[in-house]
TrEMBL record:
The gene is ydfH_4. Keywords: DNA-binding, Transcription, Transcription regulation. CDD domains: WHTH_GntR. Residues 9-76 form the HTH gntR-type domain. This is Putative HTH-type transcriptional regulator YdfH. It holds the Pfam family GntR. SMART domains: FCD, HTH_GNTR. GO terms for molecular function: DNA binding; DNA-binding transcription factor activity. PANTHER family: HTH-TYPE TRANSCRIPTIONAL REGULATOR LGOR-RELATED, TRANSCRIPTIONAL REGULATOR, GNTR FAMILY. Gene3D superfamilies: GntR ligand-binding domain-like (1.20.120.530), Winged helix-like DNA-binding domain superfamily/Winged helix DNA-binding domain (1.10.10.10).
Length: 225
């Protein structure tokens, strides 16, 4: 019998995962200075893996390092929103059409079931399943577009998109609006209507961009959840 090798999470990976969640969910606020020593002590992680985690977060554009000052949580700006949503629209406009034609029907049905379950959770005031469903839907679409380089680009901005996604989902009406678009996208994909799915995906990203920019303008400061 062949026993599969167990792969354990490295300290750097764990530190990255925890800090990424703290930032994207707003528990570490934009502009906040990171006390690296205190973080290491709290997490039980030495300086080397913590530096590796912070380097990855800087690559994700979630933190910035200032010489002789320290490492800080980055700020979301209007230009960031425009650039990231523009990249996302370009990727998903292409990917949704291709995935409609390539994705197995079973995967499409599973996605719809997850969307329905997230809707039911929102009626109970629980929005976390929506965020999980949202990320899974869009990533799965790109995964099934048959373009490895496009997936690599999408992966490179995933953490920042997650940050924007959560920051731009203030209010039940916005989560509900995004959920309605998710239904339009997946229903069109299940019907095999690539044109309709593609249009719905483009409208969805445009709406998310406007919602996020509106939050940015209303708060008159970098968005925080």
């Amino acid at each position: 019998m062949t026993v599969p090798r167990l792969v354990t999470e490295s300290l750097a990976d764990r530190a990255y995962r925890v800090l990424r969640a703290e930032i994207t969910h707003g528990r570490l606020e934009q502009g906040e200075r990171l006390d690296v020593t205190a973080i290491g002590e709290t997490m039980g992680v030495s300086k080397t893996p913590l530096r590796e985690a912070l380097s990855r977060l800087e690559g994700d554009q979630l933190v910035v390092t200032r010489p002789r000052s320290g490492t800080y949580v980055a700020h979301i700006t209007a230009d960031d929103i425009d650039e990231m949503c523009g990249m996302r629209k370009a990727i998903e406009w292409f990917a949704t059409r291709e995935a409609t034609l390539r994705m197995p029907d079973r995967v499409k049905r599973d996605l719809r079931e997850e969307i329905v379950a997230a809707d039911e959770a929102m009626t109970r005031g629980d929005h976390e399943p929506f965020f999980v469903s949202d990320m899974n839907l869009h990533r799965t679409i790109v995964e099934h577009a048959g373009n490895a380089r496009m997936l690599a680009v999408r992966d490179s901005i995933e953490a920042y998109l997650e940050w924007l996604r959560i920051a731009g989902a203030n209010g039940t009406h916005r989560s509900s609006g995004a959920a309605a678009r998710h239904h339009e996208i997946i229903d069109a994909m299940i019907d095999g209507d690539a044109d309709r799915a593609q249009r719905a995906a483009a409208v969805h990203v445009d709406e998310v961009r406007e919602w996020t920019l509106e939050d940015f303008r209303v708060t008159t400061r970098p968005i925080a959840t």
